[in-house]
From TrEMBL, chains A, B:
Keywords: Methyltransferase, S-adenosyl-L-methionine, Transferase. The lineage of its organism: Eukaryota, Viridiplantae, Streptophyta, Embryophyta, Tracheophyta. It comes from the Eukaryota. Residues 191-363 form the Protein arginine N-methyltransferase domain. Its EC number is 2.1.1.319. GO terms for cellular component: nucleus. InterPro entries: Arg_MeTrfase, PRMT_dom, SAM-dependent_MTases_sf. It comes from Salix brachista. GO terms for biological process: methylation. This is Protein arginine N-methyltransferase PRMT10. It holds the Pfam family PrmA. It catalyses: L-arginyl-[protein] + 2 S-adenosyl-L-methionine = N(omega),N(omega)-dimethyl-L-arginyl-[protein] + 2 S-adenosyl-L-homocysteine + 2 H(+). SUPFAM superfamilies: S-adenosyl-L-methionine-dependent methyltransferases. It is an enzyme of class 2 (transferase). One of its GO terms (molecular function) is protein-arginine omega-N asymmetric methyltransferase activity.
Length: 380, 380
């Protein structure tokens, strides 16, 4: 579930070294969960046709996984996946939802005459107790660039506690992708940054002249704050496929049946990308994800379904892509090879937000090599 | 300090009946304090010339209150008030700031060579321990419509613990005002609401047709959610004086030297307003505040300064005014009298946000009386 909510930094999550950090539940609710209690937000996700089609088809083209079976929907929201599971023939469906949206899910279950099958439980996945283990865990847990929101932790918790030994995960697999892009955004953001700094200079002069206080000592921290805001924070974008200027690479693969929280704390990938555009500017990188519904090895899907959030003209999703800008852009030509080292970790202040380091070396066919660089980014 | 930050609803503050509620500090930090840690936000407030002029003049035109005295700046932010107090001759100034902005305040104090006088303390006013009581408490604590953010609680706490018996408060007095207004906003928001509901109808049809789930049971809660969002949430506006169509009334008066938290938990006022426009539409009410720097009875100001946020062409402030919309608007003519009963309480979920009830009866000079009504609003 991609959410535009900015995870406000600050707060009191305590790091406890390796492994998942201890999270203050009140803070987590105030910062994260609360936007999902709004019907408007649920409607946005329910109106995403690509998302809806993928889950709908994954379920109804694979009824053998659901007929007469027990199902757990993690983070059920309005209950749509739970209701589809029931309509596909499930014997029993547990729909777990942490926010007051659970009340609306209950209303819908009743209105759609599925109350004999679907049981809505309000609470967090970590706290809820089910009366039995389940055959299927279904969840729409994906955030921007897959892992923003860190909701998969809750799915792992559900799986480890409630999935039967031969149970299946819906989706079964997930991958993160990156590719070099061209974009006018970098110029725009740099221009906004310059404007903010000019504004600051005028502000400093006025404060000195009219109010007798010298603010120049804060110019550097202000510029760092503005730089972070304009050029170091990843942006939500709906990229056009034409903006991809080089080959895309898979930077993370997750088997939803076996992945541990430890496996997903860090994303680390060194990859190469060949420029496929004749003559252009490398303006940054775009990141996206896909998930697949393949069932398990012992219990495979009859029809494998893919949900991709790659740049697309007609099949865009509410997730868009995440864009990491480079400024100034670098001139590249077809055949140039970009060597990227990408690292993504959870933010210490808020485990649902990410910090990225992106190192880049351009091996150009011409003799002139631009110097390698390493940038820091924040997924907020 | 007016802040555009939406206090996200949800969270875990516990109500404990009458009196101030117990607030989870982590939640409070995540929801409220964190925006003040940004230099961009401090700069916005420091660029508000009306605000800056008022405090600057209040201090420097009343140096007798500061020369050789001790001062406490509550919620010091960048430290501007603390620095002015030192420049006005204070012997010692304690600048208390809860966020990491305190580090920047320290930098500025040093850069302006005031470190012998100004001591910056990072922490909340409720927790901090000072080495002595003070002669003056200065603070810029006012939120939208004065009380949003409920920061005055912290000033009261400071005053009760640290102000000497004959000490003075800067500002010394505060008042809330309301007046009937005309505005095109109500029509706009109603139109937005209608659009959202049409959108919902289309969404319901598609979800039923393509996905076999009937969402109609949620139409009513969705409409309530949208109504609240579009028409029942007070808006920040920079009203033009021409938009005031009737006499303004004082709905709350606060003596900063004696007010208790209990005094400010509830604002309740019944007032009358006479329409002063020949022929117009009553589209809602505007609310604003003013504060005064008068010193105390035993230790008065030499020059009394006023800071007002009333609608103004040239002297607008970052606080703007808060607008409570009426839809549909009511036709009124000069001489009509509006009888208003206004109540404002703190939100149970978040003590820094407000819930308003506004009852209205229009005594029209013509024989036709529109029915009285009572609306609920949210200051978010």
């Amino acid at each position: 579930m991609g959410s535009h909510q900015k995870g406000e930094r600050g707060g009191s999550s305590n790091g406890s070294g390796g492994g998942a950090m201890v999270v203050d539940k009140g803070v987590d609710f105030a910062q994260y969960f609360c936007t999902y209690a709004f019907l408007y937000h649920q409607k946005e996700m329910l109106s995403d046709r690509v998302r809806m089609d993928a889950y709908f088809n994954a379920i109804f083209e694979n009824k053998h996984h659901f007929k007469g079976k027990t199902v757990l929907d993690v983070g059920a929201g309005s209950g749509i996946l739970a209701m589809w599971s029931a309509q596909a023939g499930a014997r029993k469906v547990y729909a777990v939802e942490a926010t007051k949206m659970s009340g609306h899910a209950q209303t819908l279950v009743k209105a759609n005459n599925l109350q004999d099958v679907v049981e809505v439980l309000e609470g967090s996945m970590e706290d809820v107790i089910l009366p039995e283990k389940v055959d299927v865990i279904i969840s729409e847990w994906m955030g921007y660039f897959l892992l923003r929101e860190s909701m998969f932790d809750s799915v792992i918790c559900a799986r480890d506690r409630w999935l039967k030994p031969d149970g299946v995960m819906y989706p079964s697999h997930a991958r993160m992708w990156m590719a070099p892009i061209r974009s006018g955004l970098g110029d725009q953001k740099k221009s906004d940054y310059d404007g903010a700094m000019n504004d600051w200079d005028a502000f400093m002069e006025e404060t000195k002249e009219y109010y007798g206080v010298d603010m120049s000592a804060l110019k550097k921290p202000f510029s760092e704050e503005q730089m972070k805001y304009y050029l170091q924070t990843s942006l939500w974008q709906n990229l056009h496929p034409h903006q991809l200027i080089g080959t895309a690479a898979i930077i993370k693969e997750i088997d939803c049946l076996t992945a541990t929280v430890n496996d997903i704390l860090k994303v680390k990938s060194d990859f190469l990308s060949s420029i496929t555009f004749e003559n252009t500017r490398l303006c940054g990188f775009g990141g996206w994800f896909d998930v697949h519904f393949r069932g398990s090895k012992v219990n495979p899907a009859q029809r494998e379904i893919e949900l991709t959030t790659a740049p697309s003209v007609d099949n865009g999703t509410h997730w868009g892509q995440q864009v990491f800008l480079l400024h100034p852009p670098v001139h590249v030509i077809e055949g140039d090879v970009i060597s990227v080292s990408f690292t993504m970790d959870r933010s210490k202040e808020n485990h649902r937000l990410m910090e990225v380091e992106l190192g880049c070396e351009i091996k150009q066919s011409s003799s002139k090599q631009p110097p390698p660089f390493r940038n820091k980014y924040y997924i907020e």
